Amino acid sequence: MTHATARSFSPVTGDAPRVLILGSMPGQASLNAAQYYAHPRNAFWPIAMAALHKCPLDFSAAHNMAYSERLKSLTQSGIALWDVLSECHRPGSLDSRIDRASEIVNPITDWIQSAPEIKKICFNGKTAAAIFKRHFGANNWNTLNSAHIEFTTLPSTSPAFASMTLVDKAQAWQPAFLQ
After folding, report:
1. Exposed site from 26, 35, 42, 123, fewest CB < 10 Å?
2. Least confident piece of the model among 33-42, 149-158, 170-179
């Protein structure tokens, strides 16, 4: 079976990020649009914009806001955005379809050493956390923990994770945006 190669985006960092949100790998809608969380039913932007702007959870309002404005809202709030994987083979958008043998990770621990303000790493879903642990191992995990970096695995904002309501996801994500 031929797998499509997916390549992640550069990190969105701002000047002095305190929180790093890590996804696994952008889905096809995001890759096609060259934007993080571009799928219209992905809850990331509605949750983030509602938390940062203290407004109602609204998919259309969040996705209608210019992408550059959404990124600016994050970076001005001290939030960086990236993915654990820089490249992998995956047909479609589901994380479960990622070919583990093809996974290439982003240089996250190196980047964190250049961003000493980072105090929290939030994983967008269990898969992002599992990939991080698998590739960075206990030594890097412990090194980052000793640097007083808190790790939090949050519910996936993907529309494929439908067992949680939008409101429940938003409540779980609040600490990531309001540090």
Report:
1. 35
2. 170-179
Mind listing the pLDDT tens digit for each residue in 20-63? 999 998 988 898 999 999 999 999 999 999 999 888 888 888 88
Q: Considering its fold, how many domains does the chain have in total?
A: 1
Range of the domain at 38: 5-177
- Enumerate residues 6+ apart whose C-beta is below 8 A from 73: 48, 49, 52, 53
Of 101, 94, 126, give the one whose Cα is nearest residue 25. Answer: 94
Q: Are 161 and 42 in contact (CB under 8 A)?
A: no
- What is the spatial distance between Cα 95 and Cα 62, in angstroms, rounded to a whole number? 24
CATH number of the domain encompassing residue 38: 3.40.470.10
pLDDT tens digit sequence for 97-118: 767 788 889 999 889 888 889 9
